[in-house]
Amino acid sequence: MKKNFLVAGVLLALAACASLDKPRDYIVFFQTDQADLTPEANQVIADVAKQTHDLSPSKVVVSGRADGSTAHDATLADQRAQMVMKALSDKGVPAAKISKLADAPPADRTGVAAHQVVITLLP
After folding, report:
1. How many folded domains does the chain comprise?
2. C-alpha dihedral (23, 24, 29, 30), degrees to nearest 10
3. Which of 14, 61, 113, 114 is most open to solvent, judged by the fewest CB atoms within 10 Å of its CB?
4. Taking the model in full, what pTM does it have?
5. 112 assigned to some structural domain
């Protein structure tokens, strides 16, 4: 009986260690002028889906980005975000937890470095 309480206590302590105390960002990169997920992007999304299951964030925010300010770039950023949202949902992340945010890359990120979607897990 004491052993059961000890095991339960250890499991509760481990669960407390696996909580989300601050936002966590993950970056999914894309090829130039593309919204298709690469194998590397799929791996990041699989990792995020696992973290979402393990940490139970309050929200998963998906921010699509492109490296220009034209209408085409805005559309491409949105397509990238939509692809990531669908992939997260396909991997079991509840659609109700996922939201999309319009975003622009930081000023120092241009070219391929700006072809990304940032996924943020919120506590």
Report:
1. 1
2. -50
3. 14
4. 0.81
5. yes
Domain for residue 9, yes or no?
no
Range of the domain at 94: 22-122
H or E element: which one contains 86? helix 71-90
The C-alpha atoms of residue 4 and residue 1 are separated, in whole angstroms, by 5
Residue 2 forms part of a structural domain: no
Tens digit of pLDDT per residue, the chain (123 long)? Answer: 444 444 444 444 444 456 789 999 999 999 999 999 999 999 999 999 999 999 999 999 999 988 877 888 889 999 999 999 999 999 999 999 999 987 777 777 878 778 899 999 999
Radius of gyration for the chain, computed over Cα atoms and rounded to the nearest angstrom = 17
Using an 8 Å Cβ cutoff, are 57 and 123 in contact? yes
Is 1 a member of any domain?
Answer: no
Do 19 and 36 touch, CB atoms closer than 8 A?
Answer: no
Contact 97, 3 (CB under 8 A): no
- CATH code of the domain containing 91: 3.30.1330.60
